[in-house]
């Protein structure tokens, strides 16, 4: 957590499969009640990492549940997700994560 009022959270899960080669995918906007998700390749890591910067402090357990659910559904390996949040609800976070995943060619929702 930083002194700026923004909380930084990081999660990492072992991947099950690497998605097809893809260019970074950016969805959403950083604004009140919304967030931006950047999904990038991370070749060779074998893992899916999440770095979250959020203005809504103290919700780490909820964040972990939402990103764990996403990872359970998609199982990406060799991928990195960066999130810049301004108080989005878990439903909006899940929607944006799925939008980012759909930006990868050949990935189904």
UniProtKB/TrEMBL annotation:
Superkingdom per UniProt: Bacteria
Post-translational modification, as annotated: Covalently binds the prosthetic group of malonate decarboxylase.
Modified residues (O-(phosphoribosyl dephospho-coenzyme A)serine): 32
UniProt keywords, alphabetically: Cytoplasm, Phosphoprotein
InterPro entries (UniProt xref): Mal_deCO2ase/Cit_lyase_ACP, Malonate_deCO2ase_dsu
Residue runs in coiled coils: none
Predominant location: cytoplasm
Protein's UniProt name: Malonate decarboxylase acyl carrier protein
Source organism of the structure: Piscinibacter gummiphilus
